């Protein structure tokens, strides 16, 4: 094992096998090794808290540390070695405290390496063979364990956003810890790990429902909204990522400053929440999905605030270097990191606002509007219309095209697929995958737009609610009897939890692309094919013929 690093957690992994020299995402080998160490430490902390939880003694701080550690290791979330080192130290220190606490309370802890392992900061890079993904030599066990880990990472991200709005659920923490405990065990069979995969999927449904409740209770139900794509003549801040609490506080703090706020990438759906519409300086969306940062940030002219992934590390000569801010679990060397909010206070975005005031307004590169806001509440208000359209044959099929966007050329497939769909089909989308077709003139069916955008990737939950409501309306027994085709694009680990959530709900025949995950071994793929009918994609013509015709 002489590779400098090994990571295969995302869809763009080198050669669809694994990044071993440097991440295609820009992750340096040292950063990858630190992430492996952080994951190892976190598994230990989770195992201890899991054992304490059995006795009703679980620690809240540990739960939150686990969320942050998992979220920080998601693809494109954090590239900052110093931040990662600080997180590792924190997790180890907290684990030690909990071990002492367990002793005091008479809670016995198992002989698990992850629990008892200790390492000093200068040695964080000395154990790559022990803490890395390849330390598990059995390919199928490794595959199942990583499927669990990646699902848990995605889940942690959603749960952290809900936590920021003061919504929590102990049952989800229990599954997170149990899953990490299972990954650290050496005696679980493939069947037991497969059961854990589905348990994580069920927790994924709960986590997305929790975040949906947190978002809609706090900010109202998303409603049909024409989102402005053009610009105004004021200096401005671009906010990216998924965290709505950060957006709220940024909007509050920019009131009366003459600084506008625009969304980028996965923040686009925020434009559809009634709460945010009250801010006169909330202008609209600038640009497309995450990987267009280089061009779009260079013409935006103002500072950019990353609340989560996906960050593309800028080239040294990028003209927006020095204008990037991160917060939460996100991090980037050279960027200014906005500190967490203190209890009862807002985060302090004054540095971002001060910088914006010194910058010229954004340069316009497109005009017009995008229609968004088709989350479950809004769609169910249109339910009668939709059901009528299905009954009368005006809508023949729904195609779920949720998930992520990515850089690969092969993703042109999704644009071509959307264009080739017959006019009696409706696309249900969520996540940044939509940028492949949400600006196409696909029209509507009797006033129902042919692209119904439910929101962020976590709003895939909305698509589930809509599917279950349609099942009821048509008096079907099984959600798989609905005229729905699933053509899901994945990139990072949040898409993994969305997939596992769908599987746990019994959804069959999901097509996953543009490639199947490299972390699925051939045997694990077989299990998924046999039990769930999972498949890949082919050409637009073939897929159209096989799924739609
Ligand atoms: Fe490679 Fe993806 Fe891992 Fe980055 S996150 S190192 S691109 S597999
Ligand atoms: Fe996109 Fe990164 Fe996954 Fe939230 S923002 S869907 S890729």
Topology-level CATH name of the largest domain: Substrate Binding Domain Of Dnak, Chain:A, Domain 2
Helix content: 40-55%
Put simply, the count of helices is: 19
> Which small-molecule species are bound to the chains here?
iron/sulfur cluster, FE4-S3 cluster
What is the general shape? globular
Based on the structure given, which CATH architecture of the largest domain is correct? Answer: Up-down Bundle
Walkthrough of the structure:
The protein has 549 residues and is an alpha/beta fold. The chain folds into 3 domains: 205 residues, Substrate Binding Domain Of Dnak, Chain:A, Domain 2; 133 residues, Rossmann fold; 173 residues, Rossmann fold (3-Layer(aba) Sandwich), CATH 3.40.50.2030. 44% of the residues lie in helices and 10% in strands. The chain has 19 helices and 15 strands. The strands form 4 sheets. Strands 4-3-2-5-6-7 form a 6-stranded parallel sheet. Helix 1 packs antiparallel against helix 2, helix 6 packs antiparallel against helix 7 and helix 6 crosses helix 17. The radius of gyration is 23 Å and the shape is globular. The mean pLDDT is 97. The structure holds iron/sulfur cluster and FE4-S3 cluster. Iron/sulfur cluster binds next to loops.
